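Lecture 7 notes: from sequence to structure.

We start with a single chain of 670 residues. Read the sequence below before looking at the structure.
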Amino acid sequence: MTMGSNVSLTALSENIESAIVSLGWSSPTGEGDADVSVLLLDADGKVRSDADFYFYNNPVAADGSVQLLGKEPTGDGSEDRISFDLTAVPAEVERIVVAASRYEGARFGELDDLKVTLADAGGESLLRFVIEDAGQVSAIIFGELYRRGEEWKFRAVGQGYESGLAGLATDFGVDIEDDEAESAAAVAEESSAVVPPDARPQTTLEAVPAPRPPADEEAAPKKRTPRPRTAKRRVTPPRAPAKSLAENESWKQARLFPVSALKGDRDREMRATSVLLSVMAQVPRFGRRITAPFGAPSGRMETFTEVSLPHGDTPRRPDGVIRVERAGKLWTALVETKTNGNALKSDQVQAYMDIAARRGYEAVITLSNDVALEGSPLVDVKIDRRRKHQVALWHLSWAEVAHQAQMLIRHEGVGNAARTWLLQDLLHYLQHDNSGCHGFQNMGSAWVPVRNGIDDETLCQGDPRALEVVESWERLIRQVCLRLGGELGQKVLPAQRTRRGTDPGAHRARLADQLCVEGRLQAELRVEGAPGLLTVSADLRTAKLRTSVEIPAPEQGYPLTWAKRLVRRLAEAPADLHVETLVEGQTGGPRGTLERLRPEPADLLPKDSATRITGFRLSLFKGMGSGRGNAESGFIRSVDDAVHRFYTSVVVHLDAPASGRATAKERAAV
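Now the structure, written as tokens:
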């Protein structure tokens, strides 16, 4: 599409009761990011109330018409997805504006490949609009959905705002907190107050009316309805668990979902499917969180296991079925589950795709410990495009299930204690050694030969085993992001540096050749609120893991002051932390361990006072696990532990990046 053009959704698909809108972008440095927002407008082009403004502090509509699904990494950057249930949009809403914004002095002109895509309920992409030149704006309207009679249409907009999200929202009638600093301070004050979770008012319950005051008494003034705040909310830290009443550690707490009786893979698959689907049905917010990315509407959910469906001479029994009812219409997905290291079988999934197509179901969802990669399908399935009804094939990893449960338990909440307890029992089940639902846990059969080939310098470029290791490394990094994000309650995504249109397979092939030459695997993680990208490097020659972050030098002050302040900030960091000064025009500057630098921070300064310091690099080194599995001595566990240790012992002590300040990597990329 081009700017200003429009198209009818019914002309593109017959399955547009719900839609997924994705806003995408990439960054030359891998660090750029933006946040999406949605406004529901009436016939006058204004919101009916502030509740019609959906953004990171208000991500879900109560009626299910809008849900911000969060960010997902792509082959050339990242995308932020929004689920719309168009059948649930109130009749008085005429337009739905879809926008994105940046913060702390960042501009959209610094990002590449700005685009918006729209897919129907089956996951089929219907349209694409690319914004060629965003300019120096901090908010952009990408597009809008609007009514024309009984149908919905989409218009490509591409309009920018220099005043950011607050200015954009104000133009459409949202009453934003005027003083941004005051708003941020209020948010900080709210988040710093220690209130027991059980004592917090539940937002889903109506307050009990107070007795009516006597007529001669002056009524107390009503509390002003809080206005939306565009300042980001602080993450609520998890509550410390209550002290156990058990006499000793041998007393095991009774569980709703026991794992001790599981004896085989089939038992594990049946139990895991039943446990997950039952909790999804009983905890609506969790069920919605799992199914919304697959195009499911918001509505009454029921789940089933071991359902028999006719298929030729032999009936088929998918592991589970999910059904959602909305406005008299049904959305149905078949579920195929695998646990431990068992791989999905193409013939099974193909059979379920055929059954779903014949019966008019919307999706087939595969669930396993594997992680799906763009351009590298887990199963080879043929889709008959001649059929009028198309079925979407989706994949979900057990690590993603655990991540969503952890986010709701520790950081967001689900409405009441009973539902929280159900989620906690589900998470305990998934994390148990005998459940078989531990996520990606095997680097594959190529890991040991590739490691040995690098060690004795016999691994050649083009070796398919190197490509297999690169794909396994990508899966591992995505799982590390999920686990760290679940602990922090923040977005953690792999940073992408590839350009739009880059073939994922060709990109991985280049990384595989690089592995053969350098003997090193490397990835970058973008952690919300961190001062820079968190880099993870695995050197297969030295069997060392390196986790590091680069922080920019302050724009004002003296270098000695910077060095002293940095050392003070790292007072609780490990003594073996390596600190390196980054200097302009040179590959490296003064460096040393934190233990040596604490008494002499001046050792971080170059001997030539005219040399310009651009930043500092902080690194921790750790021995790399050798095994391909997830055991204590395995490579996967060592990477997970290294990232967790580096963030919790180093990154948490650092300041977030200041407004408009470029990191050392951004300066180097210029």
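The two ends are 31 Å apart (CA to CA). Keep this in mind for problem set 3.
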